[in-house]
Design brief:
heterodimer, A: 510 residues, 7-stranded mixed β-sheet, 4-stranded mixed β-sheet, 24% strand, B: 327 residues, mainly alpha, 13 helices, 0% strand, globular
């Protein structure tokens, strides 16, 4: 009887819980794969951090979903000389603690960001700033070392209150921004609760609460959305879950070109890959169509050149080497790599053709891709050593230049400079493959300083064309971006970066 | 028993010291630099070098280890490199959730495994016995992450009975709320706990049911049970008082070991159900090479495992007067 009583009590409580499951309708619950690490805009490092900060803080500009900088804390700006920018701030903007946003806050934000001791992950993007000064209480001037075309697009950095940075306040855990939402509660590793900022300069959001819930497993997150426990989910999502959710027919869905690419990085400093013919031959052995079709299940697009279709620098006229095993075999033979002894592996001067191919284990699609490529390369007489390890080990080898070919990705390609200057300029700090081409160097320098967008477009297309010919990178795919949301969230506009800013203008159907 | 307990507690010191040294060495033997992960792909080598210096990672290993042990001895587990909080605070905020799901899973495992094992032994060869065998096979062979996804699909997506992810109020808060006249809070907490606890419990329930069955079959054959039956003692009393009590001894020992398995299983279960416990935290910490946090969590896991097994030994001694606790 005791067991029966216990069981009755437990089921009774579960049933009561069932009755309490209803929730206030002005809350939007967003599923995410990782927790934020810091809610200080200068120090954040991961996608959830960027997205939450985009709701908590305002930058001088707001980069909209078409990647155009639009006025935000700065109501307007001037660009009197190629190296000078002047911004005029809104006088009505206030931080969540009630203090007004002033030029001193902007100066403090960028000065501390540039201070090496802060260890800001994005500091490199702002090093062209020579000086930032307050001209008056609501006017701030930036002076650059040299013309820097992407500058405006990077000014969406959240402005932090200088009286708190000076006081050594822990903004990472207790953020104080001036954005449409303020932090209500942060249960680390589980949930970030944001409440609408009633005093927001652009009017209080109608959605009074945004609940960001961490569910690391992609399938579990999709199921939680399907069960009604979440209102919005975004990439990364498993292809089979995407198909199932689309098949249900009761959710809003959008698939859009993302701002990221997946690519093969060739180490041009190694004896084998220093020869552009070898790089081209290997690129001709990448069965891109099958990889996109079978492994990525068409969630990503096959890439044709360096910049994704979401970028204004993209051109469909530029083409990388196409999958052509016969052509690749002929090219390898012309270089003296033949399988004379019939063991299935090409050799030259007594040395077998062996390539190291690596990626990181966190992305299963990438692991499957290198395994598939190993098979394709074997059929072409190339033996492949796979090197798959977790991100930390992988990046340690990559930074040391200890690799031949690696499969990885670049994201946040808001401006083409972001994926080229540091990566492909011979002096670039992220040029792990040691690629050197004086013409590319010159073009990238011009791309940074050119004022007119049409000039920059032509420059970056020239760069993309050379890269497609030289193949220091082979761009495998343009990453697609998926977003699902409940129909009762009205006015939500998905953003290829995953930003949730449109929730500030959304309403909820009752 | 007091001397035995004190001795076991003192033995914890070298044990934990060993754990610290091994984990410290393992984390540094694996390639990967927390400074590189922290600063991201855009970092300059100079910035990486500066951060390494500020984290003391530029010092020789023995120096780093010596400082770490000295700090641990003072109760200071250091600061998480990535989370902007002390390791102690990070663990304290997550530990209750992990303990909650592990203890709930252990309870379910005992409540399911024990009666199933007893029934299978009493009805040897019957459909109940065969059914318990099938249950055990499934429970042992089904990976916890797969089971979690299946349970979620059935009970949250299709039937919509239980929430798919997340955690309600912590159980002790929920209990106070229930005592204060708000039983719904406790109900909501239990509803959130149900799926992760069941997913985590299944493997242990399966192991326990087989163990209880075997143990019961052995005990039912021994002379004192047959003697009791011969004296005409009621069957129910023979089973509960004479057989089950003795059959439970190996099971109690296994509970201690299963607790370790449950902590390991919690790593996967927490990721699937978005359960904010230490398991989820340690996975992230390892991938980021957050050395102080990984070391701190493993230390806490080791301490919990050792204490649970000490408790098991004490309970075993209490259950079986023949057991002598060697000092």
């Amino acid at each position: 009887m005791t067991a029966l009583r216990c069981a009755t009590l437990i089921f009774g409580l579960l049933a009561i819980g069932c009755g309490e499951r209803g929730r206030s309708v002005d809350v939007v619950r967003v599923g995410t794969d990782v927790d934020a690490e810091s809610l200080d805009p200068r120090l954040t490092r991961n996608t959830t951090g960027y997205r939450v900060i985009n709701l908590l803080y305002d930058g001088l500009v707001l980069v909209d979903s078409t990647f155009e900088p639009t006025p935000n804390l700065a109501r307007r700006w001037e660009h009197p000389t190629p190296t000078t920018w002047v911004f005029y701030l809104r006088e009505t903007a206030r931080f969540h603690d009630g203090t007004p946003v002033t030029a001193a806050d902007v100066v403090s934000t960028f000065q501390t960001l540039l201070d090496p001791s802060l260890n800001a992950p994005q500091r490199r993007l702002y090093t062209p700033i020579a000086d930032v000064a307050a001209l008056d209480r609501h006017t701030v001037q930036f002076t650059l070392h040299e013309p820097y075309a992407p500058f405006l697009a990077y000014l969406d950095m959240g402005i932090v209150p200088h009286h708190l940075t000076d006081e050594d306040h822990d903004l990472g855990n207790q953020p104080v921004g001036s954005g449409p939402y303020r932090l209500a509660r942060w249960s680390k590793g589980y949930r970030i609760v944001l409440d609408a900022n009633a005093d927001y300069w652009d009017g209080a959001p109608t959605v009074s609460r945004v609940d960001v819930i961490v569910v690391p497993d992609n399938t579990a997150r999709a199921q939680a959305f399907e069960a009604g426990d979440l209102d919005i989910i975004q990439s990364p999502l498993a292809p089979q879950d995407v198909q199932r959710l689309i098949g249900r027919g009761r959710f809003q869905h959008e698939m859009m070109p993302g701002i990221a690419v997946t690519y093969l990085n060739f180490n041009t400093a190694t004896p084998l890959l220093a020869d552009v013919r070898m790089r081209r031959a290997l690129a001709m052995l990448v069965d891109q169509a099958t990889i996109i079709e079978q492994i990525y299940e068409r969630m990503d697009e096959p890439a044709s050149s360096l910049f994704p279709t979401s970028s204004w620098a993209h051109s469909p006229a530029i083409g990388q080497p196409q999958y052509d095993p016969t052509g690749a075999a002929a090219l390898l033979s012309s270089m003296g790599w033949n399988d004379a002894d019939g063991d299935g592996v090409r050799e030259k001067n007594g040395r077998d053709l062996v390539i190291r191919l690596g990626t990181h284990s966190e992305d299963l699609n990438r692991v499957q891709t290198v395994e598939f490529m190993q098979n394709t390369l074997r059929n072409a007489g190339i033996r492949t050593t796979l090197e798959v390890s977790d991100w930390a080990s992988f990046s340690a080898r990559r930074d040391a230049g200890d690799f031949e070919i690696i499969l990885l990705g670049w994201t946040q390609i808001i401006d083409p400079d972001r994926v080229t200057f540091e990566q492909l300029h011979s002096s670039g700090g992220l040029n792990w493959g040691r690629y050197t081409n004086p013409r590319v160097d010159r073009l990238l320098e011009e791309g940074r300083s050119a004022e007119r967008k049409s000039d920059r477009t032509a420059i970056y297309r020239s760069v993309a064309h050379i890269i497609a010919e030289d193949v220091p990178y082979y761009i495998l795919s343009y990453q697609g971006y998926q977003a699902f949301w409940s129909p009762h969230v009205r006015g939500f506009t998905p953003d290829p970066r995953g930003m949730l800013r449109s929730l500030a203008q959304s309403t909820l159907a009752r | 028993m007091l001397r035995y307990t004190l001795k076991r507690l003192l033995l914890l010191v070298p044990l934990l010291l060993g754990v610290v040294v091994v984990v410290f060495a393992l984390m540094r033997l694996v390639p990967g630099d927390p400074a590189v992960v922290f600063l991201g792909q855009d970092a300059t080598p100079e910035a990486v070098a500066q951060l390494r210096k500020s984290l003391d990672l530029d010092k020789p290993w023995p120096v780093q280890l010596g400082r770490y042990i000295a700090n641990v001895a003072r109760g200071d587990l250091g600061d998480s490199i990535f989370r902007g909080e002390s390791v102690m605070a990070a663990i304290a905020s997550r530990l209750p959730a992990t303990v909650e799901v592990a203890v709930a899973a252990l309870l379910i495992a005992v409540l399911v495994g024990l009666p199933l094992g007893v029934l299978a032994a009493l009805r040897r060869g019957s459909p109940i016995d065969v059914g318990s065998m099938v249950f055990a096979q499934l429970g042992v062979s089904m990976p916890v992450f797969w089971l979690g996804i299946l349970l979620m699909f059935w009970f949250a997506v299709e039937l919509n009975w239980l929430p798919a992810v997340g955690r309600g109020e912590s159980l002790h808060h929920a209990l106070f709320a229930a005592l204060g006249g708000r039983p719904g809070v406790l109900g909501e907490s239990l509803r959130h706990l149900a799926l992760p606890a069941f997913a985590l419990a299944l493997n242990s329930a399966a192991v326990m049911s087989r163990l209880v069955r075997t143990s019961m079959l052995d005990v039912l054959q021994v002379e004192y049970v047959r003697a009791a039956r011969g004296k005409g003692v009621a069957n129910r009393r023979v089973i509960v008082t004479h057989a089950l009590r003795n059959a439970l001894l190996p099971v109690v020992n296994v509970i201690g070991l299963r607790f370790g398995a449950l902590l390991g299983g919690a790593v996967l279960t927490e990721s699937i159900f978005g359960w904010p416990g230490l398991g989820q935290l340690v996975v992230t910490a390892i991938s980021q090479r957050d050395f102080p946090l990984v070391q701190g969590i493993v230390l806490v896991f080791a301490l919990m495992f050792a204490l649970v097994n000490l408790a098991v030994d004490l309970v075993t001694a209490a259950l079986d007067p023949r057991m002598r606790l060697e000092v």
